[in-house]
Here is the input.
Amino acid sequence: MADKLTSKQRDTALRGLNGWVYDEGSDAISHVFKFKNFSEAFGFMTRVALAADKAGHHPDWSNAYDTVTIVLSTHDAGGLTDKDVALAKAIDAILA
Here is the structure.
């Protein structure tokens, strides 16, 4: 099982991410992605699903037409871990 990040580790990790927001109450990071249309949003979700499956770490997410909301937290660790940061970086790379 992955260990939760300390506040210092978390703050350092967040500086390396693009637009992810930390929620202290849920000890998770989230990002809202906007696209031109549903097709682009769904294509993005497909690429994220492949990256998540490869990493063995799956996001909590939702889709509403052109908007995809992703929340990352490691449930069995009870909060944010390196696994979440790594997946956030992989998601950022999809959009790069």
Notes: The longest strand covers residues 28-34. The chain has three helices and four strands.
